[in-house]
Write a structure and sequence with these properties.
163 residues, HSP20-like_chaperone, Immunoglobulin-like, alpha+beta, four-stranded antiparallel sheet, stress response, four-stranded mixed sheet
Length: 163
């Protein structure tokens, strides 16, 4: 994890903390042990897809924001990325195949920690002007790398003269 001080882009920290809270809350509500799900009946709760949030590393350079997302076991074809120009958020979603031994009745799962099913992660960016049409992504060795270029011509601060 990259350490940061309060003077380094606090809006990234707040947006990420708030986003993570609501993502984990939504994931918890999808879990069969959630009271709301229990009331709907065990069979119905078990048919819901498991939702998890992949780990994300966020870096910033003078000309881009770099996002690395851990997606081991995910096929490149199942990855979807969207950037919302109004909310300045990138949504990353994908689906991981079931565990390889899950279909074998002779194999008993002792511990399953790796997430499977539908993944989703929303990364909030600060309000700077992003070159949305130039966002690029590549997937290699289980890591999705997204490059979000900043507009070098955009004014981040503008001085106003009082008349």
């Amino acid at each position: 994890m990259v350490s940061t001080t309060a003077s380094q882009q606090p809006e990234f920290l707040v947006q990420d903390l708030v986003g993570n809270f609501f993502q984990h809350l939504a994931a918890a509500q999808q879990h069969p042990s959630c009271p709301a799900k229990a009331q709907q009946g065990q069979a119905q709760a078990q048919t819901k897809a498991v939702v998890s949030t992949p780990d994300v590393d966020l870096y910033e350079t003078s000309d881009a924001i770099l996002i690395d997302v851990a997606l081991p076991g995910v096929s490149k074809e199942s990855i979807a990325i969207e950037y919302d120009t109004k909310t300045h958020r990138i949504t990353i979603s994908a689906t991981a195949a079931p565990h390889r031994h899950i279909q074998d009745e002779a194999v008993k799962a002792v511990k399953l920690e790796r997430g499977r099913g539908t993944f989703e992660r929303i990364v909030g960016l600060n309000k700077q002007v992003i070159l949305a049409q130039e966002i690029a992504a590549r997937y290699e060795d289980g890591v999705l790398q997204i490059t979000v270029p900043k507009d070098p011509k955009a004014e981040l601060k503008h001085k106003i003269t009082v008349a």
